[in-house]
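Structure tokens please, single chain.
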Amino acid sequence: MSAARQPSSTVRDKSATAPEPAPKARTPRARRPAAPRGVAAAPAPALDAGERARLLEGRHHDPHAVLGARPEPGGVTFRALRPYARSVTVVAEGLRAELHDDGDGLFSGLLPLPEVPEYRLLVGYDGDEIEVHDPYRFLPALGELDLHLIGEGRHEELWTALGSRVMEHQGVSGTRFTVWAPNAQGVRVTGDFSYWDSGAYPMRSLGSTGVWELFLPGIGEGTLYKYDITRPDGGHTVRADPMARYAEVPPATASVVTDSHYAWQDAEWMATRGARPAHLAPLSIYEVHLASWRPGLSYRELAEQLPAYVRELGFTHVELMPVAEHPFGGSWGYQVTGYYAPTSRMGTPDDFRFLVDSLHRAGIGVIVDWVPAHFPRDEWALAEFDGRPLYEHHDPRRAAHPDWGTLEFDYGRKEVRNFLVANAVYWCQEFHIDGLRVDAVASMLYLDYSRDEGQWVPNEHGGRENWDAVALLQEMNATVYRRCPGVVTIAEESTAWEGVTRPTDAGGLGFGLKWNMGWMHDTLRYMAKEPVHRKYHHHDMTFGMIYAYSENYVLPISHDEVVHGKRALVSKMPGDWWQQRASHRAYLGFMWAHPGKQLLFMGQEFAQGAEWSEEHGPDWWLVDPGYSAAGDHRGVRDLVRDLNHTYTATPALWERDTVPEGFAWVEADATDDNVFAFLRYAEDGSPLLAVSNFCPVVRHGYRIGVPEQVAQWHEVLNTDSEAYGGSGVRHLQPMRPEPVPAQGRPVSLRLTLPPMATIWLRP
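Here you go.
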């Protein structure tokens, strides 16, 4: 979890500005009936004063019962709400009748017709006249099954029911707007189509579900909109759509009507990606902050560069820091306001699809960070969305996140749980995402997380476990794995919670993998010590194997470890520049051979010395041929490339990653030597030997016990290679074991261990 997360700044909304004198015409003029006959409209029955007030004040739950056309004794009553209009005329086949101006933007009239005709409204403004469909003549555009599933909290494709949806309804093209706001007295949709005047388009409540709906004919893609919500106290709040699938570029905050036209080209990837479970497959991850990897690039420009770079380095996956819309760039995406909208900073949702597709066609999987633990308090977003706690817990002790000034979701509320579960499915289904790395799981699981005594409320059993969050995570994992074959979910969970990667039907949380934060902290603590002091911290490098098979682990060197004074990976290492690079390379060699999957944050692959900043990204100039020390950095990058390619080609390093049979210590107690040696085994028993010497001296004639059935060993990787910037202490010829016992084995190799280096050997 990032320490940079702060409450995002609130941006003044466009809707706060005064509306223009007339709405923007977005509907093309239709052909009018030939030779219409003028009909004088009689006065319509007057609206009840209370009903008129509710309509004009945005408190009416059923405006379709008041507006539009309906049979009355003596004919058909027409009523329209058109603020700032000078006139409203009903136009139908052979009919033209101007309505009476009732004031406050209301127009009405009673026409002597036997039934409601197919009609349109001719709306006159100062100097302009437009012909439009009447939104209040349409039936609800949301079906009963959708409403039933929403009411049950079980709509697994919630984004198809809520939000804005371009569609054809009753033979007319337009956009359906639907929003969940159960505490609202009334909801109106507003946007650039009405010059942000909130009065013109009140929505109707669809029963007890808390869903409000309105179909607006003629409205299409690119339309900006928000919801004007009348709170229980009678006040108004203007909100972005929680289900918006596209948003304005921050700091603007309006939602945008969108529809996908993308034609995927990754069918082969999608059909085969789940052939082997992630914990039994090669998995090395390059973590990327898209906005700063190459600052200024769009999604489509990134698609020209990122897949080629990652493929060359041999990573199997990229992990993208959160791409869901967020207003404050300094949060790195971890303060989400638009859970269903890829950030518009780099392009459209289809542009993001193009990037994912390009990565897939390069053979690279895509994992995205997903943030269900909290959301910011911005008054135009989710916080007290309809005037009362809705997405957040109603108890302030459960709602306020103590670390980041944000709000925690109410995981026990079925609609909120549905919002999050469907969101996880949405990213996998709509954007072909291959994995979700779930952020800050520990803060979800514990009611007392970062809270002092008296600041938290125990669960019904008196404990500290948040069982609502547990149920949410279990449902999310079970649903994603059921609906999206080949997807892996990954937990950033830093405690000893049992069963994070155990299946849900066995009582676990159901994740596929878990970040091993303990391993990361322990090993980096060891590496930060001067070599002469490392012998006192030897167990930091071995302790992880005590619990290595309790979960399916990822070994993460993530963005959190290279910011806020923690220093970049190479800068954590002691000694001069040569020793720092050597330790950096040796550590990566140890990490890639260790049980668990690998994750490395951008910039660390070429030993960037400065901490990462989202403002300028990696220091690419370090590998520019014009820089005098570029060779030092290119050497480290070449090592990462060879680590990945050798790793992927060596089943011993990943086939038995999660079972004890895949690992054996050879030397775990050489504290004075700073030496570690272990064997990895493939399913067929073929081994790989990894030996690390974290001391700056060459160790000649060092005995390492090996399996006696292997006739000879070849060095397949050496982090001290001159090509990587090392001293070049190598084993160029195959080595045969000698009948000299070592580390409890009857035969051994007599090795020359390079300084500050890791070597890999295979039969």
